[in-house]
Amino acid sequence: MPAKERLDLNEFAWIAMESPSRPMHVATLLVYSLPEDAEPDFLNQLVAHLRQSTEFVNPFNKILRRPTPLRPYPVWERNYDLDLEYHVRHLALPKPGGERELGMLIARLHSNPLDFSRPLWEYHIIEGLENNRFAVYLKMHHSIVDGIAGVRMLQRSMSSDPDDTSSPALWSAPIPEELFEDKTTTSRLRRALTGARRSAASATHVARQLYDTLKAGINDKDPLLLPYQAPMTIFNGRIGGQRRFATQNYDFARIRKLSKTAGCTVNDIVLAISAGALRRFLQEQNALPGRPLVGGIPVSLKPKDDQSAGPAVSYAMANLATNIADPKRRLEVICESTRRAKGVLQDLSREEIENFTAIIMSPNAMQTSLNLEGRTPPVFNVNISNVPGPTEPLYLHRAKLEAMYPVSAVTHGQALNITCYSYNGSLSFGYSGCRDSVPRLQRLAVYSGEALEELEATFLPDPGVVDIGTAKAARGKKASA
User: Fold this and answer.
1) Of 6-20, 28-42, 117-131, which gets the smallest average pLDDT?
2) 29-38, 58-67, 188-197: lowest mean pLDDT where?
3) Which UniProt keywords are present, listed alphabetically (predicted)?
4) Which of 179, 219, 308, 467 has the lowest tally of Cβ within 10 angstroms?
């Protein structure tokens, strides 16, 4: 990475959205069990060890420099002298150190914006969690990371060997240089010329797909949804700066078994669980609209072997069928909607998907630039994302990673975010919401467990027999604030 580099359009958009009421950082909550033979000062030693790791890889060494009269655009500048006592923090939960206390702390930490005079990340080690556990809360600005990139970075900082104590600190874990895009002026010009040739060849393809999509979107008989076809809900107004957070954790085998039995994908089951919970949550508050809610589904453009940081995301729209009481019919509508949405993108290249998304979502960009979000109809109602994670157990200096939960960003017009991570046979949901707009967020987490049970009762031949950990996972493990 050069000493200074311009922000690309995606990075600039996330930075431009930042405000006191809308901090645009994302985070991951990791829960570890202490080694059985851990010394009383194990965490003190771990913090001291991490603070001694003073080699910084991209994006942990990037600091934002605002425009100046002589340089009317922001740039990233490489920083070699980070204050690790600031970035790496050691906290403790109040007794009894349960899931509720943890959820309250995470909600408060997630409400605090990052310091833009420093590299845009924080790493909090939290002790005092019941059952001989501790937690790590990693916060990074969305301009330098997305969900998949964040999971892959975390994975590089841990080991599959339970006895390994040599894992590098997260900010020192090496990333092959070839995975980083060259952003020098010469390379930008070269890519621009190459892109112009490609664009000329693909413009017709994108234009044809846009025409077909817009035509389908206004056809009532076609399940394809367009932006701004969502009803207004309590989730789609203006937000404040304070956050709520709740979690649920399920045995992934339950989700996989249900998807196979119902003939759909795991993502469809995630959407159906969320839809069932949202329907009940809104009904309870007499706020369920007559039209179905629309979910915004992030679609990663990164190939499986891409370990680089930085966001690379498109969007699809899914009908959540929250106006349908029958869970079987609701899932059928969701599956039909997602299959149709995937069909729009499947024949496009990555570059074509980026261009297609930029055009189809351009009204949202206009809405954002005019600060109209939350004052005009929403592009969709709620962001629902499923991020694949490690499939084997991981260890941080012999401490076993038990669960990992996403803590996502919310924004004006999108006061609720539902994201889940898969890890080592489990699926963990993180519910992030505006404290003022989404009251009693923990109930949504509870209702998700009940929505899963409802789907099992509908589709499984014997709903009383489910996979390992049924009694434990039926309600899920939850933390809330």
Assistant:
1) 6-20
2) 188-197
3) Acyltransferase, Glycerol metabolism, Lipid biosynthesis, Lipid metabolism, Transferase
4) 219
Q: How confident is the model at residue 195 (pLDDT cuts 50, 70, 90)?
A: low
Of 135, 34, 100, which Cα lies nearest the Cα of 477?
Answer: 100
**Residue 21, both tokens:** 């009421």
What is the rounded distance in angstroms from the CA atom of residue 11 to the CA atom of residue 310?
A: 8
Calpha distance 152→363 (Å, rounded) = 32
Q: Give residue limits of the domains in the chain.
A: 4-179, 206-388+413-473
How far lies 467's CA from each of 252, 257, 261, 263, 272, in Å? 9, 8, 13, 18, 19
Q: How far apart are CA 334 and CA 324, in angstroms?
A: 11
Residues marked active site are found at 142
Residue type, 303: P
Per mean pLDDT, which range of 29-33, 300-304, 381-385 is the poorest? 300-304
**Cβ neighbourhood burial of 78 (10 Å; 0-12, 13-18, 19+):** middle
Amino acid residing at 270? V
Measured distance CA(290)–CA(285) in Å, rounded: 14
CATH number of 206-388+413-473: 3.30.559.30
Q: What is the DSSP string of 406-446?
A: EE---BTTB-EEEEEEEETTEEEEEEEEETTTSTTHHHHHH
Q: CB neighbours of 360 closer than 8 A, spacing ≥ 6?
A: 210, 213, 226, 227
Pairing verdict, β 88-92 and 121-129: parallel
Lookup result for tokens 């570890």: 32
Query: Which residue, 65, 63, 70, 58, is CA-closest to 86?
Result: 63
The tens digit of pLDDT for each residue in 268-281 reads: 999 999 999 999 99
Q: Does the fold of domain 206-388+413-473 match that of domain 4-179?
A: yes
DSSP-based three-state secondary structure for 245: strand
Residue 26 to residue 417: CA distance in whole angstroms: 11
Peptide bond between residue 463 and the one before it cis (omega within 30 degrees of 0):
no
Asked if residues 148 and 313 have their Cβ atoms less than 8 Å apart, the reply is: no
Q: pLDDT for 212-264, tens place per residue?
A: 777 777 877 888 888 889 999 999 999 999 999 999 999 999 999 999 999 99
User: Which H/E stretch holds residue 195?
Assistant: helix 185-217
